[in-house]
Amino acid sequence: MSLKCFLTALAATSSAFFAIPVMAEDRLKCGEASYFASEYTCHNDKTLCPTVFGLPTKPCGGSGSGGCYPPQQYSCSEEDGILRDLPEASSPFTLSVWGVRKAYQNQKIKACGGYLAFGANARQCHLCTAAGGKNCASFKNETVFLPDGRMNAAVPGGQYWYVHPSEGLLQYTAALDPPKNTSTSSWNVTAAEIPRKEFAGVNVKVHENGFFVWDKEGSSSHWWFACLVTLPGGVISTGRSWRLYAPLTPDLKDCDLVRVVATAVDKSNGVYKYS
């Protein structure tokens, strides 16, 4: 992708979505220009690059004075100023949310009850039962994803992340339990059918240390919607967290556009089972 094409697209959308309200903020200097640190980053005391969804962009060009790009999506050739897509993810990764609101910036996504959510009230639910044996102590118990659509869980049969095909909600599958009177060691897990496993990782593109993107063919948007939801058992205004939706449903309420970023981690950061 040429830098010129990217800048044209950025300019067309920035006025609609990317303005960050600033209150009582001092102006800084970048060369001869002034700027707010919440809106721009100064490079080499001469180039201002905008902050988009709370994420700083970087200049591309051999002299450092070229246009700006998101490093979560592209790499830049300093010699010719050409932008190239980051490679697709090959490592386990965590996910964090970024948006215009400060409440959205660098918020880790957590797994609990089949849902993936973020925010102060979002919970992470995991278990390591007797079936996990002595390996329980080896898990760091973070919500970790794998590029092929699996959750980073060691439970027999595995668990999978997916986007609900009609609602667009980002979710994960439940762990399977062996049939009654069947031990874990003798259970033929490969014969078990995991509901919605067929949707695992479908229509999502993950860049290595970069954007986690809704990538369905023909979709008009690759952003996600963060929607405020009351947790099970809660009441309005209490026990609420944000869940993520792909742009499939036009009548979403209490939602904002956000970007989601994948960060590579070690596989040991996962869990035995997400509950």
From TrEMBL:
One of its GO terms (molecular function) is carbohydrate binding. Residues 1-24 form the signal peptide. Residues 29-79 form the Endo-1,3(4)-beta-glucanase 1 carbohydrate binding domain. The keyword Signal applies. It holds the Pfam family Carb_bind. Keywords: Signal. It comes from the Eukaryota. The keyword NADP does not apply. This is Endo-1,3(4)-beta-glucanase 1 carbohydrate binding domain-containing protein. It comes from Rhypophila decipiens.
